Prior knowledge:
By secondary structure, the chain is of the alpha+beta class. It has a single domain, classed as Glutaredoxin. The chain is 56% helix and 10% strand. The protein is built from eleven helices and four strands. Strands 2-1-3-4 form a four-stranded mixed β-sheet. Helix 2 (19-29) crosses helix 7 and helix 6 (93-102) packs across helix 9. It comes from Duganella flavida. Pfam families: DSBA. One of its GO terms (biological process) is naphthalene catabolic process. This is 2-hydroxychromene-2-carboxylate isomerase.
Amino acid sequence: MNGELAMREITCWFDFASNYSYLSVLRLARQKNVIVHWKPFLLGPIFKEQGWDNSPFVLQKDKGDYVWKDMPRECAKYGLPWRQPSEFPRRSILAARVALLGEHQPWIAEFCARVMLANFEHDEDIGSVECIAAILTSIGLDAEAILAAALSADNKARLHARTDEARALHLFGAPTFFVGPDMYWGNDRLSDALAHATR
């Protein structure tokens, strides 16, 4: 029984600033037949270790031009709203700190989805306290208490530890999924990961 349950679980590593993470987070938030383990982390430190000081979609013009043409197609395919953010990538550290607090709470999927929509549908500054507080309040949570905990030294240390965990797993991009020990990278591999998790 435990083995059967484990095969119906998927772990999603994502960054709130990542446009392809947006697609996967919204898709996974709809899933009813798998248990999703949400793993928010920051891509920035991972990219820096690869010699990049920004998203490759910014550093490589041709790749960036392609991505902003690809995103409307992908969103249309999955029935998701889309607006190219006026700032990319946005600072996602506060949202990640809040998500760390909530990753085992019943509100985590809704919070993640709403942050993603704030960034990639409504073009809001998800790095601001005001934006994150409004999202927390909109789902019936005590924004003041959660933000205070998110900004605590202990929680900041947890986010650093999460980056170390990502390094140990050899993550190089987001979204990345795990089904048991098997890794799948990219929104275009989410269907494969879900098929593996539910077979």
